[in-house]
Write a structure and sequence with these properties.
The complex is a heterodimer of chains A (515) and B (244). Chain A is of the alpha+beta class and 515 residues long. Chain A is built from 17 helices and 8 strands. Chain A is 39% helix and 9% strand. In chain A, a hairpin with a 3-residue loop joins strand 1 and strand 2. With 244 residues, chain B is mainly alpha-helical. Chain B has 9 helices and no strands. In chain B, helix 4 runs antiparallel to helix 5, helix 4 runs antiparallel to helix 7 and helix 5 runs antiparallel to helix 6. The longest helix of chain B is centred in the last third of the chain and has 32 residues. Classes of the chains: A alpha+beta (515), B mainly alpha (244). At the A-B interface, helix 16 and helix 17 of A face helix 7 and helix 9 of B.
């Protein structure tokens, strides 16, 4: 951990300590402390949860804020046990108030349930906090190929018990026999819960619906919806991986190159919030594709430990190409235009990261807003989200087997993707596309817009509207930097990312000098 | 017949100097060939009109360097013609410098986005000066001093004019940090050392012994060849990026 990280952690601990000392008088610290529920450090998360409980207890007026923030973290694909703990505590201490807040949220959401995780012990009036049997999204797998060996890698139910395995799909009658018998749940919830089954005897991995609706889904292999990661796949991945456990936390979502599952992976006793990615495969020449992808993932792995590159924890080829990477919540594509200072800070950070890639002889090749991720975990609301570069080098494997436009936003693609006379895909391609990403950072818009053909023509002509003309507040000096990075001809493009970084640093100095 | 034409023809009556000059001209020929080839391949790889113009001028630089080197070698290995061939070497070097100036001018026009400067007359004067000085020295070797003066003056003018474009380019923020920027930085020393070869002729006009001037010139030819070699690296780098 760098000194900056140590300072941040010390500041976070100090913030929590201040909140614990005088919870009623430390309102201003709450946003930051709530943010710590996403911290990597278990101790920090637990301390933050305790601070939140104390604050809510000391000042019930804070409950609406706290409950809403906690629900955000518990909604759909949330994972942190500490957030659950804080929520459970406040719900147990202030059931009426919490119920009202949840009702308000339900109304605001047009009746959609604000929380889809199951709460043991029931909850007043709200069926959404149903007992643990609904948590079919949680399923741990064990080492594949040795079902009799309980071993360290084991499929568990939600109660932490090893799953009794029965080969072959179950009959409907068998499934019915295992339906949840939830004595603790609120009667209102029973209707929902009857449709779900107890994971204890469940022979299939079950997941939460992708739209965040409550209730897990139980299905035999034949009936399994296509968004479910089947158990055999998960087991095979676990067997090939270095993980001791992989817990599926949420149903799949469509990623750029893969189907993504939010997971909690345990390696050497340490839990990590991960995204399990199952890469798409071409219909033909899968061997060739897998070789390309393997090389690409090896390259990514080489720079995975670098700052601001999404960590690639593990990857493999069986039963289909997969990778477990650090979980992130959003991408640049999800964000609006950033303030100039933050955009410039992002730009410098990304440029340095791409420079690191190039120093390690790694070409990204597919930089666009979709490959710039943000964790969403910040200590303070005034802090900036740190950009992380995702999908390192994957486009190289995909572009020869799929239509590249499916995996790279054409509006950000370098001219060499459209016309070979502009040269090969190399480090200069990264410079161009980094320039296009900077354009997006400063203006909130893509450099080009429209249908494919006009966009392609504009890219080849290099006729983007200057950022300062797009957004008045953008300094004209930004135009120069971005136009050089996005020069159609490589000869007039930045020769190295270091040159781009140098200009950005000068730009920052100018902006600071000019106030 | 061949034995009458072929044979060691020492320059300035010095075997040592002749040996150094022979190596130098071979070096210039090889490097000029390499530079010209990469310029040609770059020109072939691009479809940008502006770049085609630039690579065209750079190709001519390579060709002029080859011709200079070949004629220099011929001066040493042929018993006939004598120092008249050295005048031709000086002429080709001047052509090379002129092409270099035109290349810098083309880059300036394209990267600055300005219209072509109204210097056609001046360019015409340069071309005429190069032609007159070279042909004059070839045709009237016995009266070469005034033509040598013209060649030297043309070298000074080309150096100044080319440096003007080059320095503007290097100060142009639209160019800084780009591959073009580093290419220009590599071409400027070629301009400097290349133009110093004809400029050295002014020393002859001033009364210095020509043998001494030839020694100085061969040093500048070596410098020109080596700087041309480093510039070739940038051409190769660009070609690789173009997929060549």
């Amino acid at each position: 951990m760098g000194s900056q990280g140590v300072d941040d952690e010390a500041a976070a601990r100090e913030r929590i300590a201040a909140l614990v000392r005088s919870p009623a008088e430390s309102r201003r610290l709450l946003p930051g402390v709530v943010g710590l529920l996403e911290a990597e450090d278990d101790h920090l998360r637990l301390s933050a949860a305790c601070g939140i409980c104390l604050a809510g207890r000391a000042d019930p007026e804070l409950l609406p804020y706290l409950i809403r923030r906690l629900l955000n973290r518990l909604h759909a694909d949330s994972v942190r046990a500490e957030a659950m703990f804080a929520f459970e505590y406040l719900a147990s201490q202030f059931p009426e108030e919490v119920d009202e807040i949840v009702d308000e949220l339900r109304e605001e959401n047009d009746g959609r349930e604000p929380l889809s995780y199951a709460r043991p012990g029931g909850f007043r009036r709200s069926h959404i906090y149903s007992p643990s049997s609904n948590r079919h999204d949680v399923g741990r797998t064990r080492l594949a190929g040795d079902r009799r060996d309980p071993g360290p890698q084991q499929v568990y139910n939600d109660d932490g018990e090893p799953v009794k395995r029965q080969p072959g799909p179950k009959t409907a009658a068998e499934e019915g026999a295992h339906e949840t018998d939830d004595d603790e749940s609120d009667p209102d919830t029973s209707a929902d819960e009857e449709s779900s089954t107890d994971a204890t005897d469940d022979d299939t991995a079950t997941l939460e619906a992708p739209d965040g609706q409550s209730g897990g889904v139980h299905a035999s292999p034949d009936e399994r919806p296509d968004w479910i990661l089947d158990e055999e796949t998960l087991e095979a991945i676990l067997a090939e991986s270095a993980f001791e456990d992989i817990t599926i936390l949420a149903g799949h979502e469509q990623g750029l190159f893969s189907e993504n599952y939010r997971t909690l992976a345990v390696a050497r006793g340490t839990e990590r919030a991960t995204a399990l990615r199952l890469f798409r495969q071409p219909e033909s020449n899968t061997d060739g594709f897998e070789r390309y992808l393997s090389v690409a993932l090896d390259r990514w792995n080489r720079v995975s430990a670098a700052s601001n590159v999404i960590s690639l924890y593990d990857y493999g080829q069986r039963p289909q190409p997969w990778a477990a990477v650090a979980y992130t919540e959003q991408t640049l594509a999800d964000r609006d235009r950033l303030p100039i200072g933050e955009a410039l800070w992002n730009a410098i950070t990304l440029t340095r990261t791409v420079e690191t890639l190039h120093d390690n002889n790694v070409i990204h090749g597919g930089l666009d807003p979709g490959s710039i991720a943000y964790t969403g975990a910040i200590m303070d609301e005034n802090e900036r989200l740190t950009p992380l570069i995702d999908h390192v080098g994957l486009i190289e494997a995909f572009r020869f087997h799929f239509d590249p436009s499916e995996y790279l936003d054409p509006r950000y693609a370098a001219p060499e993707y459209f016309d070979a006379t502009f040269g090969e895909i190399d480090h200069a391609t990264d410079i161009y596309q980094l320039g296009a990403v900077l354009y997006r950072l400063f203006t909130g818009e893509a450099p080009y817009d429209g249908d494919d053909r006009p966009v392609q023509r504009q890219i080849l002509e290099g006729s983007a509207v200057a950022p300062s003309e797009q957004v008045e507040t953008v300094p004209r000096s930004v135009d120069n930097v971005i136009s050089k990075a996005m020069a159609a001809q490589k000869l007039t493009r930045y020769e190295t990312v270091a040159h781009l970084e140098q200009d950005l640093l000068q730009l920052r100095d100018h902006l600071v000098t000019d106030g | 017949m061949a034995s009458e034409w072929l044979g060691l023809n020492e320059i300035a009556g010095s075997a040592n100097f002749t040996f150094v000059a022979f190596i130098t001209y071979v070096l210039l020929t090889v490097i000029g060939l390499r530079f010209g080839l990469y310029a040609y391949w770059n020109g072939r790889a691009t479809e940008s009109d502006a770049q085609i113009t630039l690579w065209g001028y750079l190709l001519f630089i390579g060709v002029a360097a080859i011709l200079s080197g070949v004629v220099g070698i011929l001066r040493i290995v042929l018993r006939v013609f004598g120092d008249v061939l050295l005048n031709l070497v000086g002429g080709f070097i001047l052509v090379m410098v002129l092409c270099l100036v035109l290349a810098l001018r083309a880059v300036y026009i394209n990267s600055s986005g300005v219209s072509a400067p109204s210097d056609r007359l001046l360019i015409g004067v340069f071309v005429v000066a190069v032609a007159v000085s070279t042909l004059g020295m070839l045709a009237l070797d016995s009266m070469r001093t005034p033509f040598a003066g013209l060649q030297g003056a043309t070298g000074v003018a080309l150096l100044a004019y080319g440096y003007r474009f080059g320095s503007r380019q290097l100060a142009n923020t639209r160019v800084q940090g780009t591959l073009l920027d580093t290419l220009l930085r590599h071409l400027l020393p070629v301009l400097l050392f290349g133009s110093m070869i004809p400029v050295s002729e002014l020393a002859v006009v001033a009364g210095l012994d020509r043998a001494i001037v030839l020694h100085v010139q061969i040093v500048f030819v070596i410098m020109t060849a080596t700087t041309l070699m480093t510039a070739t690296i940038k051409l190769r780098q660009n070609l690789v990026g173009m997929g060549g």
